[in-house]
Fold this protein.
Amino acid sequence: METILTIFKALSDETRLRILKLLEDGEMCVCDIVAALNMIQPKVSFHLGVLKQACLIKDRKHGRWIHYKLDDADMFKRSLILSVLERTSNAGAAEDKKRLERFLKSKNTKTDCINLKNKIIRVRGANA
């Protein structure tokens, strides 16, 4: 019972649903998620922690960066995530993906997050 409650609590937050929507397209570095959501890294990391605790996502360390992806091991959870994401608004997700696209264009490589702070400020400035 505790596990199912943890899962539904994790799915009951808009930010966490936005993260899952982003991860639906594949693995992402924390800096990419931060840029897409236009949020500060500690806040994004908190939400990633909640999703990880509910076993909805997995992480992988690559150098000093952590990459996240949906946890496909449990078919019930995978089906639940897909079902919930189907019923969520795509308007916010479209904006997140636009911000992510701009951020990725500004990166030298897919894993280059060295000047993260400056790049996010530049991405945020593009929205203003």
Notes: The beta strands are 28-29, 57-62, 65-70.
